[in-house]
Amino acid sequence: MGVGASLVVMGDFTVEPSTANVLDTDYNEISGLYACGNVMGGRFLGDYPVVLAGTSHGTCLCYGRLAGYQAAANAKGAQA
């Protein structure tokens, strides 16, 4: 029996690029909710390029770092 896998979200979580915060439908940041890598929207129009190994690693690392930085600042009660 075959097993299907989802490699990417083709819809999207709209993300504030400087904080990695997920935005609501009115483009307001949702406090404490972050996205990085393949769950970020707007990166692939209609097809996920599986022939390009590592395509998502850069955005995952970049926005994962931003999200971690923001989450740590929020936990301390400060703004990064």
Automatic annotation (TrEMBL):
InterPro entries: FAD/NAD-bd_sf. It comes from Campylobacter concisus. This is FAD-dependent oxidoreductase 2 FAD binding domain-containing protein.
